[in-house]
Write a structure and sequence with these properties.
single chain; 12 helices; binds iron/sulfur cluster; two-stranded antiparallel ribbon; globular; 12-stranded mixed β-sheet; alpha/beta
Length: 324
């Protein structure tokens, strides 16, 4: 079924009808943490976007439409913590059991209960990432305002449950946004988590509303993959061009009013795609100075029992073959 969708998408692409393989859907932009590096909830926030929760019936409509349009992966996250949505477990169940779609998302882990973890395993959720932005409790508190220990316990509980149930899913990763206050902890952080989880992701910090990297990107610019393969829908139905748009400045319309497919295929989206193919990165204005564009150079190496994949935005570390 999934293979059929992938082949279908390739064929549609040949006919000029690009269809999204992934849907990032924000169930809420509310959050219980106030992370320093978060462009939406952190101290540099300039957004006046209202805080809200997607109505479950709307979620089901959009995700079903995405599935019927050929999509395969749902990422139920946005500028908030998805587990704060009171019906998040039911939304996961609908996406996985009713629609049989792949599901992967990130959480800060602070509101995740044992029952949630059990559900993730029972549903066969494909991937989950826990934002664990420091090695030590003091640094974690300074960055997020929250407590490290319960989050670490939750990650370890999921690893133990998965092992005791002899299942392979979900893939479990921890994520850290590198910044001044945690920089000195990163090597020990990798040593600590490498034997525990499947993947460690060290992310570059985005500054200036999430679009300019702390360390400028030097590789030649390319058309951003986000415009071609992933649809982004915010909790109030606004379709924006990507997850970097924390302030909803690039909205192309509202899927609750205009429908998911017609916005994805809209003239404005087509204009953005063809402009990027020609090497013209604005409009939309948000793309002009963006260094967080998706795609680009990737390198892999093995080092001291670690398999490391590097891009301009992330360093992904997994256990290497020698230490398996
Ligand atoms: S170029 Fe940047 S702002 Fe534009 S779609 Fe890609 S990631 Fe988003």
């Amino acid at each position: 079924m999934r293979l059929k969708r992938v082949i279908g998408n390739r064929l549609f692409g040949l006919w000029g009808d690009i269809r999204p393989g992934s849907l990032q859907i924000e169930v809420t932009n509310a959050c219980n943490f106030r992370c320093l590096m978060c462009p939406f909830h952190g101290p540099e926030n300039t957004s006046d976007r209202p805080i809200g929760f997607m109505e479950p019936g709307r979620y089901r409509e959009v995700v079903r439409d995405f599935r019927d349009f050929g999509g395969s992966l749902v990422i139920p996250q946005g500028a908030g913590e998805s587990f704060l949505h009171p019906e998040f477990p039911e939304l996961l169940e609908f996406t996985k059991r009713t629609l049989n779609l792949s599901v992967g998302f990130n959480t800060n882990g602070a509101r995740v209960t044992r029952d949630h973890l059990r559900l993730l395993i029972d549903l066969g959720i494909d991937e989950i990432g826990f934002s664990v932005d420091a090695l030590t409790p003091g640094t974690f508190k300074a960055i997020t305002g929250g407590d490290l220990e319960p989050v670490e316990q939750t990650v370890k509980m999921l690893v133990d449950m998965r092992r005791s149930m002899s299942v392979r899913r979900p893939l479990i990763r921890v994520l850290l946004v590198a910044q001044e206050s945690n920089q000195a902890e990163i090597d020990d952080y990798i040593r600590r988590w490498l034997p525990v989880v499947d993947e460690i992701v060290i992310q570059s910090r985005r500054i200036q509303a999430g679009r300019v990297l702390e360390k400028p990107r030097i590789e030649p610019r390319r058309p951003c993959r986000h415009l071609f393969d992933t649809a982004f829908v915010q909790w109030d139905g606004e379709m924006v061009i990507c997850c970097e748009d924390w302030e909803s400045v690039s909205s192309v319309g509202n899927v609750f009013e205009s429908g998911f497919r017609s916005l994805w295929r809209s003239r404005i989206m087509k204009t953005y795609r063809s402009a990027q193919r020609r090497g013209d990165y604005s409009p939309p204005a948000i793309c002009r100075d963006c260094q967080a564009w998706a795609g680009g150079l990737e390198s892999r190496r093995n080092e001291n029992g670690k398999e490391i994949t590097m891009t301009a935005l992330t360093r992904v570390i997994r256990r290497g073959k020698e230490s398996a």
